[in-house]
Design a protein that fits this description.
Blueprint: H1 2-18, H2 35-38, H3 53-62, E1 68-69, E2 72-80, E3 83-85, E4 88-92, E5 97-99, E6 103-104, E7 111-112, H4 113-126, E8 132-139, E9 144-149, H5 153-156
Antiparallel strand pairs: 1-7, 2-3, 2-6, 2-8, 4-5, 8-9
Helix pairs in contact: 3-4
Keywords: Signal
Protein name: Ecp2 effector protein domain-containing protein
Organism: Pyronema omphalodes (strain CBS 100304) (Pyronema confluens)
Length: about 160
């Protein structure tokens, strides 16, 4: 009996370990809570370490450009008077389509910091920047997150 119980516990543990970890939905990202404290003008950006998404992208491309990032994501969201909306943008990293101006990397798709920076630049340049009200690039392998919030005053109204 104990042996059977042990086997079932081991099987459940193995199944749990094999299950992919779901990313935090963008709408539930803890950094979104910062929106309320900064207001919604074009100058109201909350970002680290460089102060803006443009600076973040430059840092990725110029600082240790060959450094590998294996678990990463690039995100941007836009808003309208009815709240958050999804938008497709014809940008991808060759393997993952960008939805919500969004690309995911996995531990199986390592990229250099320069490649990730260039992908981010493509996403932000190809999509309507005026509609982007919140975005981030995250290197999950190091726990580093860079965020830019509040690109346009009008975009902030629905979700503030």
């Amino acid at each position: 009996m104990q042996f059977t119980t042990l086997l079932s516990v081991l099987a459940m543990t193995a199944m749990a370990a094999a299950s992919p970890v779901s990313p935090v939905p963008i709408s539930d990202h803890p950094l979104l809570e910062k929106r309320a404290s900064i207001g919604c003008s074009m100058k109201d950006l909350w970002a680290a370490p460089s102060g803006s998404m443009d600076g973040v992208i430059k840092n990725l491309i110029n600082n240790n450009p060959n450094g590998q990032i294996c678990t990463w994501n690039i995100n941007a969201r836009r808003d309208n008077t009815h709240g958050w909306v999804t938008a497709e943008c014809d940008v991808n990293d060759g393997q993952h389509p960008a939805v919500w101006y969004h690309t995911w990397g996995t531990a199986h798709v390592c990229r250099s910091r320069k490649e990730i920076g260039e992908m981010a630049r493509q996403i932000y340049n190809s999509c309507k920047q005026g509609d982007i009200v919140q975005g981030w690039i995250q290197d999950e392998s190091r726990g580093e997150t860079w965020v830019e919030i509040g690109r346009t005053p009008n975009g902030c109204k629905a979700s503030s």
